[in-house]
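Async update (no meeting this week)

Hi team, since we skipped the sync, here's where things stand on the single-chain job. The sequence we agreed to prioritize is pasted below, unchanged from the tracker. I ran it this morning and attached the output directly underneath so nobody has to dig for it. Comments welcome in thread, and please keep replies under the output.
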Amino acid sequence: MYITNAFGLITGQATATRLPNVPCLRARIKPSPNNVGGIRLGASDSTVVFDLTPGTDTDFFEITNLNELWMQAPSGTSDVISYWIQR
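Output:
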């Protein structure tokens, strides 16, 4: 099996939004170290509870599509995350 790597950036909002449709086998998410505040991830718009501070990293985790996750930038300053997916 050959692994393909893909990378991208996503800008957050103060309200929870679903991540884009990006099929994958596993992903790694990292908020920019230049963000004003932290980022929250969750399984739905009402359960956005996994906090990531600027510059931290999730390490790789198994997931079939990034759109299974929701993201919120509580500071409301359009903070950014980068993602690295493998498929």
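Quick observations from my side:
The chain has one domain: 5-86.
The mean pLDDT is 92.
Reply here if anything looks off.
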